[in-house]
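task queued by scheduler; priority normal; single chain, no ligands, no partner chains; default sampling; output format set to structure tokens
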Amino acid sequence: APVTTLFALAYSAAFWNSNSSAGFPVQAIKSQLVDDPNAADSASDIYRAIENFNLLATIKSNPVFGTGFGKPFLQPIPLPDISGAFPLWQFYPHNSMLHLWAAGGVLAVAAWLYLAYAGLRGGTKATLAAAKGYDLLVALTGTAIVLMVTLYSYLDISFDNQTLLLFPIGFAFIHLIQDGIDADAAAADVERREPEVSDSRRERRDVGV
């Protein structure tokens, strides 16, 4: 931890005012801490604000069942056409959670939130029950992946192949560790019961049974 902290501080200091690709992580953090966005950040913020407003209008048009997937969201406030950079901009808005509600309705949102809840609950359980360092690392990584994808769905396009592929990987990590924990518990239970069975058979032999 101390080495990682020193490296992070040195890296942040070196690229705090840099616009190079190597300093992108630092600039992303800086944009959240320092109220000094550049022109590109300002335009992106305005675009997303209008996009969220349009998504909320789409949700209000059919909040229970949604408008259906594969249909563009409503635009009471017109957005600039960015099809040259992103052809599916009318079908994949940045806020994936609002998009899920707008397209799939309440049941779609409830299913997604329950899936995220099940992953976080199972991951927390596996992390707390993991005894070995390796098991703890894998369980914690799987839980972090599920949490990351869940939070990311509020911030950017997450319902694509690349991002959603992480979700089952996180669940697989959690299941792998939990399955091992359950197997160890079952083996320990068998070992605990074997002496009782042996003592019971010995008592029956003593009385001539």
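post-processing summary
- Residues 204-209 have pLDDT under 50 and may be disordered.
- The radius of gyration is 26 Å.
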